[in-house]
Amino acid sequence: MIAALVAALVAFSQQHHARELRNELGRLEADLAERRENVRVLEAEWSYLSRPERIKDLAGRHLADLVPVSVYQLSRVSGIPLAPPPIGIGTTWNQSGTGEEGL
Q1: How far apart are CA 90 and CA 88, in angstroms?
Q2: Across the strands, what pairs with 100?
Q3: Which of 8, 30, 93, 99 has the highest local Cβ count within 10 Å?
Q4: Is the full-model pTM beyond 0.70?
Q5: 57 alpha carbon, distance to own chain's centre
Q6: Residue 92: which residues within 8 A CB-CB, separation 6 or more?
Q7: Containing H/E element for 26?
């Protein structure tokens, strides 16, 4: 009789666990379906926003003032000034902009 009772409790426990797993599976499938729908909506929006005629219109409105880069606008990397050294504790700056170590 005790074995039958234990078997019944184990069977009930397994049935309850299986029901919980089915419920979780249902929630996960619903979540997956919602995410797939969101992906479809985003793909449709991307298709709409990336139409060539729309891009051309936006480029005409917002990039019309751009001109090609002139050779005179280019510079060598060696022409870029280096950053000043970091300020240390006790560094004072004189009027010429150079730092002097203080006490």
Answers
A1: 6
A2: 92
A3: 99
A4: no
A5: 28
A6: 99, 100, 102
A7: helix 2-49
User: Within 13 Å, how many C-alpha atoms sit on residue 56's CB side?
Assistant: 3
Query: For 57, phi and psi rounded to 5 degrees?
Result: -65, -45
In the block, which residue shows the tokens 């049935």? 15
Centre a 10 Å sphere on the Cβ of residue 99 and count the other Cβ atoms it contains. 15
The length of the chain, given as a count of residues: 103
3-state secondary structure (DSSP) of residue 78: helix
- Tens-of-pLDDT digits for all 103 residues of the chain? 999 999 999 999 999 999 999 999 999 999 999 999 999 999 999 999 999 999 999 999 999 888 888 888 888 888 888 888 777 766 666 655 555 554 4
Positive or negative, the CA dihedral 81, 82, 83, 89 is: negative
The CB density around residue 58, as the number of other CB atoms within 10 Å, is 11
Kindly provide the residue ranges of all beta strands, DSSP E only, lying in 1-103, ordered along the sequence: 91-93, 99-101
